[in-house]
Design goal:
This protein is an alpha/beta fold and 798 residues long. The N terminus is likely disordered.
């Protein structure tokens, strides 16, 4: 078919039309998905489950007139304020990067093509299309040159759709091959993809085991607080016979430490700081939980071109099959390059070498696609010309094919220029292929490629090179970089279709060439079937389906609009070497959140245990007629107990370096340390209090001394839990631990602090017993930690 569309070219809307349509509200005003609004951020950080619990408890304490004991209410301000500030900073970073990395459609206005932001497209705009472009609004095709569109992301239909004149195109689909233009018929929320997004039927966020685990823990704690609070109230009011004010203060003191108030805050801060740090490296995180997914990655699937090698190419050599063909070959190459509306890197290199097109008239076109590996143009009397992969177009046993393979083994990219006996758009194309020349292109290996591969090897992350190029050429590049198995590439045309057999092949090999788009997708699925967390990097339209299916899709900023749209991470600097920083940031965020979770949940466990022990003592005292035991602490005591054992250390640890790969099982792993540690802290604190408690007739001094004794025991063991969590030690961790110990020593040493916080360690006997029980608790925590580590190591080996 003729592809000369200039004669019937639609000049598009005028600027006056655009202004009128905008005024009528007929523009593509779909909100960006990069980040939520400031209003949503404020609402999300203020109206939380934890703030609600602390708010109710604060009202109860303030109703008793004890303002000092309401200090924990500052946590509501801190939780909300710090979370809001950090998330707004992250939002600004995301929004700035989203504008830089935005997919900008090519729109024709007043006869001139121009790139505009997608939200500026208006009803009736003429949008031009080329390979890799994503369709931003619904429309009707008005020009087509073998236009093929993939709608699988919307409809699930795997086969590409050939679009003829007047055919409908849907937003969210993308161009696989060919070119054309369409007129926008539905924009904004009326467009197909916008409706799907609102229904959430196709567009889903990355799963976050971390957030779901924390939510599960918070729900469980909420349910525990109800019976614990009831028991404490019963004990304080009825069994112990206390007045309302001390009874309520005791209840609040028991319930406040059950709430892991800083856990959600630290999680928000860690995610937000991660986004900001990645933003400084020109990395756009399109879905926040993707940071967590990156921390779990153990396989990275990467393309050769644009990943291990530079994007650009240059013509290294032209090998003529027949020396007499020099003029016709040069003319054909110049025409092919000049007539391609959206040339890829290979065709651009040819065009730079042969800039003077002879002016041949095109009669048929066959655009390049990753599935068939060739493209072509027919020029009537000047012949039918093909440009593509030698091992696809030629008999493998031919001399030209062997020459191409030998050249490719040096890491060069080899294309075949050939002529055909039938037009390139014939159903039987390519027909009888006559080789005319080998086009040898040179790609420069990235200077940072070896360093990047070495990093992944050191982190036990496998790298699989999956490329559409010739397998031998891919293997030569991978082998030169020292990638294990790179010198033994596999031709994907020989791979089995069966998923299990494909997974076996992927387990034993690292480098694959001639991989079709559907095979890339199948490879990702096969790796996932073996329990791997897969990151897929890509920049071409042939990578879209694999990017969508991978646990984490990573697109280059210079990649096609379709790849950037489906990826969770976009490397705007186009550097594969940025990926180690991205993975490292993910590991730092998730590893540190897990670390500080141990601190917060240890506090929750010992607080729950203490509350139940005190509450049960009140119930049992009524049955067996003995004096009940009131709750040992005031709210101010539990506030200062968390200052240097959890609050400040958790903030520091949440931002520290951490390279350990995240694994699934967050809740069980955290509970494995938090539960035994919390039980030890709670039990030892209860025993320490029992030994010095002077009964219901105790003086105020004796009550203060008993509370101080219990608090010393609690602080000692909680500091050791911090020491366990902080391992392995470094200079700054030792400084942190020393500062925490020093902070408590000052609190107990300064007279004003002792008076303000009602501390009295002057009873030598009581303080000595606190130190002894604290020492026993420290030993028990260490034993529990070592047993847990041994069991975890055995499980990991299994």
């Amino acid at each position: 078919m003729s592809i000369d569309a200039d004669a019937q070219r639609d000049s598009g809307l005028t600027q006056a039309d655009v202004a009128r349509l905008r005024a009528e509200g007929k523009s593509n005003d779909v909100p960006a998905r990069a980040s939520r609004s400031v209003r949503d951020i404020v609402r999300g950080n203020v109206f939380t489950r934890i703030n609600a619990i602390l708010g109710v408890l604060l009202i109860i304490v303030l109703s008793t007139g004890s303002v000092i004991d309401g200090m924990f209410g500052l946590l509501i301000v801190a939780n909300s304020g710090i979370g809001i500030v950090q998330e707004i900073r992250a939002k600004r970073t995301l929004d700035r990067l989203a504008i830089v990395g935005q997919n900008k459609p090519q729109v024709r206005r007043d006869g001139v093509s121009q790139q505009i932001p997608p939200d500026e497209v208006v009803l009736g705009d003429v949008v031009e299309l080329g390979p890799g472009d994503q369709i931003v609004v619904d429309g009707e095709v008005i020009e087509t040159a073998s236009l093929e569109i993939d709608e699988s992301l919307l409809t699930g239909e795997a086969d590409t759709v050939h679009k003829l004149h007047a055919a409908q195109v849907l937003s969210g689909s993308f161009v696989v091959a060919g070119s054309g233009a369409y007129r926008a018929t539905k924009v904004g929320r009326d467009a197909y993809a916008a409706k799907l997004a609102e229904e959430a039927s196709k567009f889903t966020l990355v799963k976050s085991e971390l957030r779901s685990g924390i939510d599960k823990i918070l729900k469980f704690i909420t349910y525990l607080m109800i019976p614990a609070g009831a028991l404490i109230i019963y004990n304080q009011l009825f069994s112990s016979g206390q007045a309302l004010k001390p009874a309520l203060n005791g209840m609040v003191a028991a319930l406040v430490p059950m709430v892991p108030e800083g856990l959600v805050l630290m999680t928000s801060i860690a995610f937000a700081v991660g986004v900001i740090r990645l933003g400084q490296r020109q990395c756009l995180v399109q879905e926040l939980p993707a940071i967590e997914g990156l921390a779990r990655v153990d396989v990275v699937c990467a393309d050769k071109t644009g990943t291990l090698t530079e994007n650009g190419m240059r013509l290294s050599e032209l090998v003529l099959i027949d020396e007499h063909d020099a003029d016709s070959v040069s003319a054909a190459l110049a025409s092919l390059a000049n007539n391609d509306p959206r040339p890829n890197a290979s065709v651009q290199a040819v065009g730079e070498a042969y800039p003077d097109a002879p002016g041949w008239t095109q009669t048929a076109v066959a655009p390049f696609s990753s599935a068939k590996k060739w493209s072509g143009l027919s020029y009537g009397d000047h012949g039918n010309w093909l440009l593509g992969a030698p091992d696809v177009l030629l008999d493998p046993g031919s001399e030209t094919s062997r020459l191409a393979e030998s050249t490719g083994s040096k890491g060069l990219r080899v294309l075949l220029l050939a002529s055909s006996d039938i037009p390139v758009d014939d159903p039987d194309a390519p027909g009888v292929v006559t080789p005319r020349a080998l086009v040898i292109l040179e790609q420069k290996v990235r200077e940072d490629a070896r360093e990047t591969l070495d990093y992944f090897a050191s982190q036990h992350v496998q790298v699989k090179v999956i490329s559409g190029d010739n397998a031998i050429s891919v293997g030569a590049v991978a082998g030169s970089l020292g990638l294990p198995g790179g010198d033994a590439p596999i031709d994907a045309r020989e791979l089995p279709e069966d998923s299990e057999q494909l997974a076996d092949a992927l387990a034993s090999s690292t480098t694959f060439g001639r991989v079709r788009p559907d095979q890339k997708r199948a490879m990702v699925g096969a790796l996932q079937s073996r329990g791997h967390t897969v990151a897929m990097t890509g920049d071409g339209v042939n990578d879209v389906l694999a990017l969508k299916d991978a646990d984490i899709g990573v697109s280059m900023g210079s990649g096609s609009a379709a790849t950037r749209a489906v990826a969770q991470i976009v490397l705007l600097d186009n550097k594969f070497a940025t990926l180690p920083y991205v993975v490292g940031e993910g590991r730092r965020v998730i590893g540190n959140i897990e670390r500080v979770s141990n601190l917060f949940l240890t506090k929750t466990v010992y607080s729950v245990l203490l509350a139940f022990l005190i509450g049960l003592s009140g119930v049992l005292s009524q049955i067996f007629h003995f004096e009940p035991i009131p709750y040992p602490f005031l709210p101010r005591h539990v506030t200062i107990a968390a200052w240097f054992t959890i609050g400040i250390p958790a903030f520091v640890l949440s931002l520290a370096p951490n390279n350990e790969r995240a694994r699934s099982g967050f809740v069980s792993r955290v509970m494995r340390l938090a539960v035994p540690s919390g039980l030890i802290v709670g039990s030892c604190t209860f025993v320490s209090y029992l030994l010095v408690y002077a009964g219901p007739n105790a003086t105020e001094v004796q009550v203060t001394q008993a509370s101080t004794t219990a608090l010393i025991t609690l602080i000692m063991i909680a500091l050791w839990v911090l020491a366990v969590v902080a391992r392995p030690y470094s200079w700054w961790k030792i400084l942190l631990l020393s500062g925490s110990v020093g902070g408590y020593l000052l609190l107990f040493a300064i007279p004003f602090c002792r008076s303000f916080f009602k501390l009295d360690p002057s009873n030598i006997g009581a303080t000595t017993s606190a130190l002894i029980i604290g020492g026993i608790g420290i030993a028990l925590v260490e034993v529990a930690h070592r047993i847990g580590t041994t069991l975890r190591n055995r499980q990991h080996k299994t």
